[in-house]
Design goal:
The protein is α/β, with parallel strands linked by helices. 39% of the residues lie in helices and 21% in strands. The protein has 19 helices and 25 strands. Strands 1, 2, 3, 6, 14, 15 and 16 form a seven-stranded mixed sheet that branches. Strands 19-20-18-17-23-24-25 form a seven-stranded mixed sheet. Helix 12 (319-328) packs antiparallel against helix 14 (381-403) and helix 16 (423-433) packs across helix 19. It is globular and about 65 Å long. Bound molecules: adenosine-5'-diphosphate (ADP) and 5-O-phosphono-D-xylulose. 5-O-phosphono-D-xylulose (5SP) is lined by residues 23-24, 94-96, 114, 147, 194, 257-259, 277, 279-281, 283, 314. Belongs to the FGGY kinase family. Substrate binds at residues 95-96. It catalyses: D-xylulose + ATP = D-xylulose 5-phosphate + ADP + H(+). The record marks 21 as: Important for activity. It is an enzyme of class 2 (transferase).
């Protein structure tokens, strides 16, 4: 991967845009010069994860704010610009998290995250109450999956009635950061489509579904105002502008869910491309001009944040799984990569079903991880490290196959997220999926997408004609050095191993092989 230094250009006096991505493990910030098409600085700060029995995964919103402040300071120092040159901000956020605020704007409970599986039973009950799978598809255009916001709200109602009674508004993580920046409670269709009370076909809140989730709450006042993804949320509050050293008229774009922003940050805003993220979660998505309704409910018919739709498959165990095994052996990221590379294709028969966090697709919220095929000969650190990377990647192939016709003719996958920084993993993805992969120069594509969206929003506000496509052309560039092509022998071996993976899923979990 090329360093950012090679990308830096002259520092303009204006036309700077800030992209923020509040991911699961960290907040990333980039500063771009949209006129020159250069990335000037980036920063990243980690978050704490609150984990508990039964699949609890939560975060404190204060942690997000602290990470944003720190990452912004680092990016600004690297860019070496005056913060007053920043014209607009775009915020991307991990999808689905429940941020329930009281009337003063304080959380009534910590943010409950997309990867929390504690509410699986509530999700099942909600599906039933909405008329089963078909009822969900008819009303919402997608099937509720454990992890969506709806079951978290229902869970809070059941388990913390006092906190539930104090709810005044229900936001998503990126909405919350926009609220902190502007004081406005606003959302847009991309992120809203992952709540479970949004009609993804009509691109509107589904009040009837919301009443099933939270009968006592009034959707007219609880739910954030919906704006188009090209519209601004507002201007940065004076207090925030002072603290961050920004000028007092900085625009805040609508922002969106991290997958929607990563689609923009990889130029995936027209049919024909596939974006795959190896983040904490694994996601694979393709832009579509019409809604894509999956009768099985595994492909989520999310709206894109550039108009159109972004059908997506999400698995919960990608770098969350590889990090667990890496840390078990006490390896740093570089050593882990070396150990993965040292093991042969197929890890000498060791296979990992990496469901440490339960799983969303296939829908196994209560599953746990398994290491299978271990013998006295193949049980080595190298094989275990490779097997967890391979297992997470089999999940991505499963997801790609679910996308069906949208991905069938794709000649190249744009790979993003932390795991995409690993050359050995990129090759494994190419070999397992049998498709060429390439990374954008900036693998923090969600933060870049948010910055591009901010530039788009700013251009529209100023009456400028610059389209999102033009901005993507200028700011999204691919790193030829990251290109990995399938190797025929390895691909054939992986076809066999993938069949073994599907068989293991069928035997253990009754998932059709
Ligand atoms: N070279 C690498 N090889 C494997 N994993 C990596 C590498 N670089 C970063 N990661 C992992 O990527 C993860 C962070 O990815 P990221 O996309 O930022 O996650 P999120 O957006 O969910 O917070 C971390 O678990 C980190 O260990
Ligand atoms: O739940 C989903 C998508 O439906 C996840 O993709 C989250 O949006 C978290 O993303 P990362 O933190 O892994 O980037």
């Amino acid at each position: 991967m090329k360093g950012l230094k090679g990308l830096k250009g002259l520092k303009g006096e204006q036309g700077m845009y800030l992209g923020v991505d509040c991911g699961t493990q960290s907040t990333k910030v980039v500063i771009v010069d949209a006129e020159r098409g250069t990335i000037l600085g980036e920063g990243s700060r980690a978050h704490q994860l609150i984990e508990g029995d039964g699949g609890r995964r939560e975060q404190s919103v204060d942690d997000w704010l602290a990470a944003l402040r720190g990452a912004f300071a680092d990016a600004l120092a690297e860019a070496g610009i005056d913060a007053r040159a920043i014209r607009a901000i775009g915020v991307s956020g991990q999808q689905h998290g429940m941020v329930a605020l009281d009337a003063r704007g304080e959380p009534v409970y910590p943010a409950k995250l997309w990867c929390d599986t504690e509410t699986a039973l509530h999700n099942e009950h909600l599906i039933e109450a909405l008329g089963g799978r078909q009822g969900c598809l008819d009303k919402l255009g997608l099937l509720l999956q454990t992890g969506y916001t709806a079951s978290k709200v229902a869970w809070l109602r059941d388990t913390h009635p006092e906190a539930y009674r104090r709810i005044d508004s229900l936001l998503l993580p990126h909405d919350y950061l926009n609220f902190w920046l502007t004081g406005e409670r606003v959302t847009e269709c991309g992120d809203a489509s992952g709540t479970g009370y949004f009609d993804t076909r009509r691109r509107a809140w589904h009040h009837e579904a919301f009443k099933v989730v939270a009968p006592e709450l009034d959707p007219n006042t609880m739910l954030p105002r919906l704006i188009d993804s090209s519209e601004p949320v507002g201007r940065v509050r004076a207090e925030v502008a002072r603290e961050l050293g920004l000028s007092d008229d900085v625009l805040v774009a609508s922002g969106g869910g991290d997958n929607m922003m990563a689609a923009i940050g990889t130029g995936n805003i027209a049919p024909g491309l596939v974006t795959m993220s190896l983040g904490t979660s694994g996601t694979v998505c393709a832009y579509a001009e019409e809604p894509v309704i999956d009768a099985q409910g595994m492909v989520a018919n999310f709206c894109a944040s550039s108009g159109g739709w972004l059908p997506l498959v999400c698995t919960m165990n990608v770098t969350s799984a590889t990090t667990r095994v890496r840390e078990l052996f006490g390896f740093d990221v570089a050593t882990f990569g070396e150990r993965v590379a040292a093991a042969p294709v197929g890890a000498e028969g060791v296979m990992v079903l990496p469901f440490f966090n339960g799983e969303r697709v296939p829908p196994l919220p209560h599953a746990s991880a398994s290491f299978v095929g271990l013998t006295s000969v193949n049980t080595s650190a190298d094989n275990l490290c490779r097997a967890v990377v391979e297992g997470a990647t089999y999940g991505m192939r499963y997801g790609l196959e679910l996308l069906g016709p949208l991905a069938d003719r794709v000649s190249e996958i744009r790979l993003v997220g932390g795991g995409a920084k690993s050359p050995v993993w990129r090759q494994i993805v190419a070999d397992v999926l049998g498709v060429e992969v390439v990374c954008p120069r900036l693998t923090e594509a969600a933060a870049l997408g948010a910055a591009i969206q901010a530039a788009w929003c700013d251009a529209r506000q100023r009456g400028g004609g610059e389209s999102l496509a033009t901005l993507c052309q200028r700011l999204v560039s691919l790193d030829a050095d990251t290109r990995a092509r399938p190797r025929s022998e390895a691909a054939t071996r992986y076809d066999e191993r993938y069949l073994g993976y599907r068989q293991a899923l069928a035997e253990r979990y009754d998932v059709p092989a």
